[in-house]
Every structure is written in structure tokens, then in C-alpha cells.
Design goal:
Strand content: under 5%
Order of helices and strands: HHHHHHHHEEHEEHHHHHH
Number of domains: 2
Strand order of the largest sheet: 1-2
Number of strands: 4
CATH superfamily of the largest domain: Intergrase catalytic core
Helix content: 55-70%
CATH topology of the largest domain: hpI Integrase, Chain A
Shape: elongated
Largest sheet: 2 strands, antiparallel
Length: 294
């Protein structure tokens, strides 16, 4: 990458951080994708439609998801160049557009979730600190649909008396309200009664909070306790179960989008695949034409 292109990429990433609230991880991914793309172009900022259209053949051996991600990074970059007056045209329409099949989420059914709670509650009856902590973790993951990163970084004072919700900082440092059930509230308060008082985190580990890797291990161990294959369970699987079971219970898709913190409703719509039978039954039983005269 030329020094001129590097300077423009730096300015682009500064904009993404300041205006879009992009995380350090996202900024690093954008930089890497733009650098990899520049290796196939005579010049990044000056590339034309002909140069960009040739990338499809050059990227033929890459996974469709990688091609889509790099194309998206280039689109944002060229949009920035046009907005800032560094070029008059946007050639990004010529970028490859691979067709992606969004993978369906792995889920647990309600009976399996019940088994996990029964096992966790039985262990918590002992009063053992780790068991009380694990029950609180399970309640928050399944009861509120938190991401792993959101859960481990919760501050100790995240739950306040009389406040049935958390303020969670999610992707892109965006904040959202997450409701907390009375069950989760009770489990967290039982944990706080015996949790270390020094750390700033709700789920501490030494001077920091527990890591996402440790959270993964805890969730898998709880699955094994319930007789469920640990390979099928992760914090994200519990988030999927939260979404799927809410939708099955009649939750509105827009409400679910807000609860999950999805920027795009299309991301939330993937959960409708698990509930097609209920939707068909709903149409057959509730639609005016289903029961009216023929």
C-alpha cells in the first residue's frame, strides 16, 4: 500500500471510530481487509470499476464470507472518499457480490433448557459460591439474551434495587435496555451476597472479570451436568434459545430486535425459521378467511 493510500485508510478508520463508534476489533478488521485488497490493485484510492471487477476472479479461491467482508470494507472506504471529496465517483458497484447463505443458529429446546436450570439450581442449593455464580450466569444468558462479551463485562452494580432492567453496552459501544426477570434478579442477588466485594465486576476473576473463554467453559460444564452434550452448548446458543423461545411465545420481531441489540432487522429474522409451524397454525386459526364462510 502506498503512503498516500495508507494515510487515507488512517483517516477512514478515524471516521469509523468517531462517527460510527466502531470497536478496535472492527477497525483492525477493516484495516486488514483494505490492506489485503490493495495487494490486488494498482492503487487503492485510485482504483476504477475495471480494477474492482477483476477482484472477483482474483478472489475466486476465497470463502464467500471473506469476499463479502472485503467487498463491504471497500464499499465503505470508497463511500468515505466520495463524501470527503477525495474522488468524484464511487466505483464500488463493480465489486464482487457473492451470494451468502446465512447459517441457521444452533438451538436448544425448552425441555433441554429446563434440564440445565434444574441441574444448576440443585447445585446452587449447596450455597457453594461457584454454583451460585453459575446459576446467575445462566439466568442472565437465557433470561436476557446477553452476548458473552456483554455479560462478562457487567459491573458489580449493574442491577439496582427496584430497577427491572440492565443498561448494557453492546456492539459499537451502543447502549440498550435489557429486562431482568425476577428469577434472574434473585439469582444475581444471591450471588452478590457471597461474591468478593473488592472487584468492580459482577463476575470477577482476580483483578479483572472472567474471560469469554472461561464463560464458555462454565456453560459447557453446566450442559454436561444436565446430561446435554457440551459440544451443543455455548453462551451464544443460550442467546439463540432466548430469542427463539420468545418468538415462539408470541414476541414481536421488532421487540426482539431491540432486546438482542441487532442493528438490522434482517439479522433478527433468522429466528423465524424455527417457528414456521406455529406461524402456519396462527394463520389457519386466526386469519378471518380461515373461519369465515366459503
Amino acid at each position: 500500500m502506498t503512503p498516500e493510500d495508507q494515510a487515507l485508510v488512517d483517516r477512514f478508520l478515524e471516521m469509523m471510530a468517531a462517527e460510527a463508534g466502531a470497536s478496535p476489533h472492527t477497525l483492525s478488521a477493516y484495516r486488514n481487509d483494505l490492506e489485503r485488497a490493495s495487494e490486488r490493485l494498482p492503487g487503492l484510492a485510485e482504483a476504477g470499476a475495471t480494477h474492482l471487477s477483476s477482484l472477483g476472479e482474483q478472489w475466486a479461491e476465497l470463502a464467500p464470507s471473506t469476499v463479502a467482508r472485503r467487498s463491504a470494507a471497500l464499499r465503505r472506504f470508497f463511500g468515505f472518499l466520495v463524501d470527503e471529496g477525495f474522488r468524484n465517483d464511487d466505483p464500488s458497484e463493480a465489486l464482487p457480490k457473492p451470494r451468502l447463505e446465512r447459517p441457521l443458529p444452533r438451538i436448544l429446546d425448552e425441555s433441554e433448557i429446563s434440564r440445565m436450570f434444574e441441574a444448576a439450581e440443585d447445585r446452587a442449593e449447596s450455597g457453594e459460591p461457584a454454583a451460585l455464580r453459575n446459576l446467575a450466569i445462566l439466568e442472565l444468558l437465557y433470561g436476557s439474551g446477553l452476548r458473552a462479551s456483554e455479560l462478562v463485562s457487567l459491573p458489580r452494580g449493574a442491577l439496582r434495587p427496584g430497577q427491572p432492567f440492565l443498561i448494557v453496552r453492546g456492539k459499537g459501544s451502543k447502549e440498550r435496555l435489557v429486562p431482568i426477570s425476577s428469577r434472574a434478579d434473585e439469582a444475581v442477588r444471591r450471588w452478590l451476597d457471597i461474591a468478593p466485594t473488592g472487584p468492580l465486576w459482577l463476575f470477577p476473576s482476580g483483578k479483572k472479570h472472567i474471560s469469554r473463554v472461561r464463560l464458555f467453559q462454565i456453560v459447557r460444564a453446566m450442559a454436561a451436568d444436565a446430561g446435554i452434550s457440551p459440544d451443543r452448548v455455548s453462551p451464544h446458543v443460550l442467546r439463540h434459545a432466548f430469542a427463539t423461545h420468545l418468538l415462539s411465545g408470541g414476541a414481536d420481531l421488532r421487540v426482539l430486535q431491540s432486546l438482542l441489540g441487532h442493528a438490522d432487522i434482517a439479522t433478527t429474522q433468522i429466528y423465524t425459521h424455527v417457528d414456521s409451524a406455529r406461524l402456519v397454525e396462527l394463520v389457519n386459526s386466526r386469519h378471518p378467511l380461515a373461519t369465515g364462510p366459503r
